User: Which sequence fits this backbone?
């Protein structure tokens, strides 16, 4: 029996089974970086004078900030919803959070070196301790893993888009390329217009919260990098949380 020719492209092949999210090299780098950051936060000192430790992860909030942002990056990269999202903001979110983490690291380095300079100006010998180098290494590992994950998310999104466009049917049941269909017009309805407004309000609230947190942590004119780190996290998470809460509260129940 001769099979009839099939109209349209062949069905997409089933994707090969991927290793677990935590087994991917980028995520392993994030896990290793978090372990290193935990050591810099809770075990090692960053700078000291002969009499005592002057800077460590317990009295410098930037260490805790980098650790929390690193945990947030890990939550995003292991999320299947983030990996399957077609939103470009979601796809690049790990990289943006990595920028925020590096900004917090920069502020920690500035605070540490400034404290050392103050003691040295008074004639007291001050030295960098291993915790500072460990903090830098851990932050770099987490940031590199986050950036690599964003690159993978973007590539996966482009591949899904190409597959959908290649398999788009017309009203006659035949398969055509998207270039032959012409532009599509989409009506602007309240359901489409409200989420951006709610997201903008969430971004503003996230920024205000970041400024408040920076002040509560002793923010000053020298902690610009810390404020930038907290502000970026607030601007990124504020819309996500506000839109999610808004959709849950307005969801129609059957």
Assistant:
């Amino acid at each position: 029996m001769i099979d009839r020719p099939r109209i349209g492209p062949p069905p997409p092949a089933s994707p090969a089974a991927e290793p677990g999210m935590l087994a991917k090299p980028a995520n392993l780098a994030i896990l290793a970086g978090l372990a290193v950051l935990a050591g810099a936060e809770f075990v090692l000192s960053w700078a000291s004078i002969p009499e005592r430790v002057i800077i460590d992860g317990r009295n410098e909030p930037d260490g805790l900030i980098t650790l929390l942002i690193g945990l947030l990056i890990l939550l995003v990269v292991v999320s299947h919803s983030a990996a399957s999202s077609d939103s470009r903001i979601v796809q690049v979110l790990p990289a943006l959070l990595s920028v925020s983490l590096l900004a917090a690291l920069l502020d920690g380095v500035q605070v540490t070196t400034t404290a050392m300079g103050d003691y040295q100006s008074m004639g007291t010998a001050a030295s960098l301790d291993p915790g500072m180098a460990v903090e830098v290494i851990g932050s770099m590992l987490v940031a590199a893993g986050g950036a690599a994950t964003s690159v993978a998310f973007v590539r996966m999104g482009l591949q899904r888009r190409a597959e959908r466009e290649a398999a788009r049917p017309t009203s006659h049941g035949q398969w055509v390329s998207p270039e032959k269909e012409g532009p599509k017009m989409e009506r602007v309805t309240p359901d489409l217009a409200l989420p951006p407004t709610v997201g903008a309000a969430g971004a503003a609230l996230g920024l205000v919260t970041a400024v408040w947190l920076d002040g509560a942590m002793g923010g000053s004119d020298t902690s610009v990098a810390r404020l930038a780190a907290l502000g970026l996290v607030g601007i990124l998470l504020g819309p996500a949380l506000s839109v999610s809460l808004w959709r849950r509260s307005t969801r129609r129940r059957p």
The mean pLDDT is 76. The helical segments are 25-42, 61-77, 80-83, 88-91, 93-121, 130-166, 190-216, 224-250.
